[in-house]
Amino acid sequence: MKRSLLFLSFIIIFSVVSIQLLVIPHFESNVRYPTEKWALEFLTSGSTDLLAQQLQSIPKHQRMAYLQTIQANFGFELTLQDYQQNDFSSEQQSWLAEDKIWGDPQADLAYRKIDDEQLLVIVKPNTVPKHLINEAQRWMMGSFYLLNNMLMQHPQQSWPSIIDSLSDAFTYPVALMTLSELTYTEQQIAQLKTGAIVTISTADSDFIGYPADIAVQRIKNSDKVIVLGPFSPQLKGKVVYMLSIFYFIFGFFLLIPIIIWLIPGWRSMLSLNKVAILLGQGKFDARAKLIRFSHLNHLSKTFNTMAEKIQRLISSHKTLINAVSHELRTPIARIEFNVELLRNSTANDYQLGQLERIELSLNELNSLVSEMLTHARFEREIPTLTFATVELNHWIKQELICWQEANPDTEIVLLEQGVCHAMIDKFYMSRALSNLMRNAIAYGRNHIQVSYEQTAKGWLICVADNGDGIPLPCAEKVFEPFYREDQSRNLQVGGTGLGLAIVKQILGWHEGTASVEPSSLGGACFILNWPAKRTHR
Description:
Largest sheet: 5 strands, mixed
Shape: elongated
Radius of gyration: 48 Å
Strand content: 15-25%
Order of helices and strands: HHHEHEEEHHEHEHEEHHHEHEEHEEHHEE
Number of strands: 15
Oligomer: single chain
Strand order of the largest sheet: 10-12-13-15-14
Structural class: alpha+beta
């Protein structure tokens, strides 16, 4: 077990190190960096384009001074940089030549070309400025400032057309609305009237970790407001894609070592399950395999030790029964021979009576030895069965004739239910029925009822008596060899204690079961149940 845990720890550490050295760099360069680059360009769009267009109309030497005067109205730093093409790759140069924003999330910078000599540079600070509430306001306040200044230079009736013409510069929606059209809370409306930027969060913005989905600000003292967003429809898809790849990488590569660790244990479980089935089928020489690196090898060893002890125990049990059964034959035969000699040489009534008692005991002993040999033979090997279709009503009626003749004082009734064909081995099923009849005659009170029935799955035969019955806790045990529920009662009626065990064996060959339940007559009702679909041996 310790070795297996050490092996698991080693492969987990190896997997984590492999992720860090091999997988994460590819994830960063191919998934995370492009996503963060796109988000940076998405959030700086619009305001950066508008500002670059304004700077184009300002002389180069005055541009930096102008940026410093408006810096307080932006949530990120504004600066300029000389455009040296050697500082950029060919892809970046072509991107900037099309007047697009180039984002660099590693440096938290965004570039926008002003002209062939100068670039506008957006620098994202590490913290949100104190005069802002959240990061959404940081990105949007610059856009609001530029849009407000542009709209205030024109009459109010032309604002909608101006907003429409500028919306192409923004990658997110830009709309012009009146205060009366807004469905916000009274507190949010009051904040808008003071000129504050109001941000509205939604379930989508919370999901992607962005602080707001919509940003709104009033235009000076007018009843109009500028609405920027929602941002989540575009941000959500990118974030979900990046997180899905991230969790898949870690989940998959951390699952690999666990699977590697579990496979030997899983193979051990399959081996144990297979051996358990074989043991249940009586193949006691089956053993579980020891799988290399399996943390269940100790269980397999214990299981094999148990199977070996069971095999030895059953083998010694069978050997003992066979030996005792065979060895008893000779002394029994000698006693029988001596009894016959004594019977022929004496006329004393008392002695003759004792000889009869000895013969009764010898008959019981002979019956016990025969049953022991039969049970041992059935345990050792399954005989060749000859299955044939019989009509149960006719077959059972023929079987009961001899029992009725031998027991004239016992009422034996067959509940006939018409023609019913069943598939059985007549010889051994007859043996099973005979054992049940012998049991019913011995423990019943001169009334036995036999019935049969075809069920949805097969057939059943019931033998019921009006005796004392069998307690429910003993219903399973009565089919065990030599089990006696009442020692004194069994001594009175005789019996070997193997009859019901043999019945269970025979029904097992038919892939059926033997059971007992309370009888409507007041005694016990033994049921033989076997299926219609039988696997031929």
